[in-house]
Amino acid sequence: MKVQSNLRHLWQQWKNYWFYPAPLFNLAILRIVAIGFQVIYLFQKNFLSQLLEHAALPTALYAPLPILQLLSQWVGWGDRPTLLVLMSTFWLTVFTGVFALLGAGTRITVLLFAVGNLLIQAYLYSFGDFHHPDALLIISLLILAFSPCGQTLSVDDLRNRLKHNIQRREFVSFNLLAEKSKFAKWPLLLIQWLFSLIYLSAGLSKLESGGSWMNGYTLQYYLVRDGLRWGSDLGVWLGQHHGLAIASSWFAVLFEITFCFVLLVPRLALIYVPLGIALHAGIYLAQRAPFFQFIALYVVFVPWAAVLRRLVQRQQPAQRQKPEILYDGLCPLCIRSMTVVRYFDWLNQLTYSDLELRWNSLKEKYPQLSFEDCRREMHVLLPNGSTKRGFFAFREILRYLPPLWPLLGLFYLPLAGLVGPKTYGWVASRRSQFQHCTYDNCSVDAD
Questions:
Q1: In angstroms, rounded to a whole number, what is the distance separating the alpha carbons of residues 242 and 307?
Q2: How confident is the model over 365-393, as pLDDT tens digits?
Q3: What is the DSSP secondary-structure string of 107-138?
Q4: How many CB atoms lie within 10 A of CB 13?
Q5: What phi and psi, each to the nearest 5 degrees, are found at residue 294?
Q6: CA dihedral 397, 399, 400, 404 (to 10 degrees)
Q7: Other C-beta atoms lying within 10 Å of the C-beta of residue 236
Q8: From residue 248, how far is each of 57, 243, 284 by CA, in Å?
Q9: For residue 160, what is the enclosing H or E element?
């Protein structure tokens, strides 16, 4: 009985470690960063040109990797893919990558994007030219494909929320930072473990050299060789300073063999992540060895939801009044608008009030407001007692939505203050044309 009890306890600890409910927000950030990086990387490294160049090489140089042979049979590539197949694979990978980045059809598009990158990279590697920084990111993409990475910060999730709010005929607020899943933690942990094992393997291989790596001369050789080869003056300069080479060698080894401590004490990421970024940036500047994939994937060590919650607590004390949005709760278009605004209100900086429910408590405090005007145009009540309406209310809202800050430039263009209100008024006066309302007593059809 004691043995069974111990086994059950160990099993529970194991489940809690991998499958304890964790914020979906953190996983979504990983999806956005990893997929966004890889989409840009496909063009930055000119993978299409590389595929075209390799397709022109003789078959004698082509030795397909086992994973490529397996996948080739699955997708019908045959013994060696044709140029048309390679080009189609590249553009399909880019296409699915954009959709996966946005979170549209996430379950399928993330998997297709991951497999597409695996096929492209395996094909290029089948000619004998290997670059290990690519492996970790492709493995991470495959992990993401089997995770709930599209359950938040995605087009899929936003579309579902819009659908549910319209079906309920009311805007129901939510908080993306607070939403959790028991399947949101294991992908992040698994990638963290891969990081630690990769660094540990690299560190131990240096120690196994019998001290030759630690004496500084080995690193000096690589610095001078790569500096001359790739035109890095910094690498050549560092290669002429033996003391700096010794210090850099010891720093690299100590960093690599102790990185695993981050798994035991997550707060150590505050130290190791900046050090890792500095290490890989230094390697690139001195030797032109790009480990940008590692830098991008460091996002798995950042508890994004917790960081943003702390930021909210510091910026918004409990007694601080937040801007209040008055919206027409009988208008489907208004419900949709509030759902979208709330989706990007990550820092919870706005209050959302249904005009029908809030009016009686407002009309005495804001005698200048008209119920019909509020129903006709969205109004924002600011903490200083002032109000903004229509186009200017929407422009004010954007200031509190960091993900939408790039749009602010459009709202402050010359003549925006003249054209914007007319455009907003035109749309508001034709709400019934944009959204037919089936609600009882609907204010859209009433207009």
A1: 41
A2: 787 888 888 888 888 888 888 888 888 88
A3: HHHHHHHHHHHHHHHHHHHTTT---THHHHHH
A4: 10
A5: -65, -45
A6: 90
A7: 16
A8: 40, 9, 14
A9: helix 155-168
What is the pTM assigned to this prediction?
0.87
Higher pLDDT, 311 or 195: 195
SS3 state at 325:
strand
Alpha carbon distances (Å) from 292 to 73, 192, 199, 305: 32, 16, 15, 24
How far apart CA 161 and CA 170 sit, in angstroms, is: 11
Q: Residue type for 61, please?
A: L
pLDDT per residue as tens digits for the range 182-198: 999 999 999 999 999 99
Structure tokens at 300: 């798995």
Report the distance separating Cα 361 and Cα 447, nearest Å.
24
Sign of the Cα pseudo-torsion (223, 224, 226, 228, in order) = positive
pLDDT by residue (tens digit) across 135-158? 899 999 999 999 999 999 999 999
Judge contact between 33 and 92, C-beta under 8 A.
Answer: no
Q: Fill in the amino acid letter for 139.
A: I
Q: For the CA atoms of the chain, what is the radius of gyration?
A: 28
Any idea which residue has 């500095």 for tokens? 278
Give the residues across from 353 on adjacent strands. Answer: 326
- How many Å apart are CA 428 and CA 431, to the nearest integer? 5
Q: Which residues of 173-194 are buried (b: 16+ CB within 10 A; e: fewer)?
A: eeebbebbbebbbbbbebbbeb
Residue 10: partners with Cβ closer than 8 Å, 6 or more residues away: none
**Per the structure block, which two tokens stand in for 248?**
């850099």
- Residue 19 near residue 183, CB atoms below 8 Å: yes
Q: What is the dihedral of CA 350, 353, 359, 361, to 10 degrees?
A: -60
b vs e for 327-354, b when ≥16 Cβ sit within 10 Å of the residue's Cβ?
bbbbbbbbbbbbbebbbbbbbbbbebbb
Q: Tell me the domain boundaries of the chain.
A: 21-184, 188-315, 319-446
User: What is the dihedral angle through the alpha carbons of 261, 264, 267, 268, rounded to the nearest 10 degrees?
Assistant: 0
Q: Which CATH number fits domain 319-446: 1.10.3470, 3.40.30, 3.40.1000, 3.20.20?
A: 3.40.30
User: Quick one: average pLDDT of 413-427?
Assistant: 75
3-state SS, 260-287, equals CHHHHCHHHHHHHHHHHHHHHHHHHHHH
